[in-house]
Amino acid sequence: GQSLEQPSEVTAVEGAIVQINCTYQTSGFYGLSWYQQHDGGAPTFLSYNALDGLEETGRFSSFLSRSDSYGYLLLQELQMKDSASYFCARKLIFGTGTRLQVFP
Amino acid sequence: GAVVSQHPSRVICKSGTSVKIECRSLDFQATTMFWYRQFPKQSLMLMATSNEGSKATYEQGVEKDKFLINHASLTLSTLTVTSAHPEDSSFYICSARGGSTEKLFFGSGTQLSVL
Q: Which chain A residues are within 8 Å of B105, Cβ to Cβ?
């Protein structure tokens, strides 16, 4: 089956910019989604890239390159409340997850 | 956005008992719902796809007799963990797609603890 690999943990300070990468093995033309999950909570949808390129939604942007089997989530102007786990997902399969810790 | 309700949020049971978890789509009809489980600090693992009016589709390695799924209406799917054991202790989350998009809406999850 497919697997989506992400860095396990990323740390940053408030106001900074962070990029969370997602690489996957299975080729194809499926899009890539991103979800945020706070401890003890349910995942919430952040963005979806149906096609290659950059999608911007407020402070969050997401990029996809299907030819490179690669995508990333870019979080700008980090806030403490952004501390959470972030998952990329392709079809119904979720990535390994990245725990983001934002420090003051 | 679409709302998915999941109940109960937490359950503690004795080993050998069965536990039923309900997942409802409140403001839309979901012909398909998805059940995930998540261990602490790990990713979400797709267990099965629940199809309204037909049998669920289970992922490889998931015991269908252990995790019974029923999707009797367009707004309700249930997951029953039968003869639960401590290793079944996990966070179970249901989800559904709202409309024709790829966006998944998740229930609030059920923390199952089997003693």
A: 45
**Which residue matches tokens 């390129």?**
A53
Is the pLDDT assigned to residue B102 strictly greater than 90? no
CA–CA gap between residue A37 and residue B48 (Å, rounded):
21
Pairing of β B110-114 and β B10-13: parallel
Strands (E), A1-104: 4-5, 9-13, 18-24, 32-37, 44-49, 53-57, 60-65, 70-75, 84-90, 93-94, 98-103
Q: Which residues of chain A neighbour B107 with C-beta distances below 8 Å? A: 42
Residue B97 pLDDT? 86
Q: Choose the mutation target among B10, B34, B37, B43 for the interface with A, i.e. most A CBs under 10 Å.
A: B43
